[in-house]
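Q: What residues go here?
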């Protein structure tokens, strides 16, 4: 998927026939972040659908020596589930992750959207990143 494809899809959803009338900039950024996450998740699900080979990876035989193996590959569905698990513990942290990583908002923009201080947002993002890293198996320290 080209980087412009999800952006175009979100644009069409935001300004298409059933266009959203954002209240303000913060509302627009929040909705755009949610839509971007949905578009990326839907694309990943379609790509991994059973009729297309499911979770099987396609590897050219020329690249076998560089193939790391299934245990080293991060699957997008896992990346989508992790923020949902985080939301069960802390909706605020999960919202910050969604705005930052799916919406591409800066800490300042995230603070504006959530009505919190930039310092709090940065602190929460650091904590949430650590939580996600552990949840995804990237940090074994307890």
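A:
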């Amino acid at each position: 998927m080209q980087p412009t494809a999800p952006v175009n899809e979100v644009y069409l959803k935001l300004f298409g026939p059933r266009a959203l009338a954002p209240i303000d900039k913060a509302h627009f950024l929040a909705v755009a972040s949610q839509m971007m996450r949905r578009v990326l998740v839907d694309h990943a699900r379609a790509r991994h659908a059973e009729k297309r080979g499911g979770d099987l990876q396609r590897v050219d035989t020329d690249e076998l020596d560089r193939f790391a193996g299934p245990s080293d590959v991060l699957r997008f569905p896992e990346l989508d589930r992790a923020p949902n698990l985080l939301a069960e513990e802390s909706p605020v942290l999960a919202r910050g992750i969604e705005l930052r990583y799916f919406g591409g908002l800066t800490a300042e923009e995230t603070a504006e959207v959530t009505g919190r201080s930039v310092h709090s947002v940065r602190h929460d993002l650091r904590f949430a990143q650590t939580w996600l890293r552990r949840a995804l198996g990237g940090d074994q320290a307890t």
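A: Context that may help when evaluating the design: The chain has one domain: 4-51+74-135. The chain has six helices and no strands.
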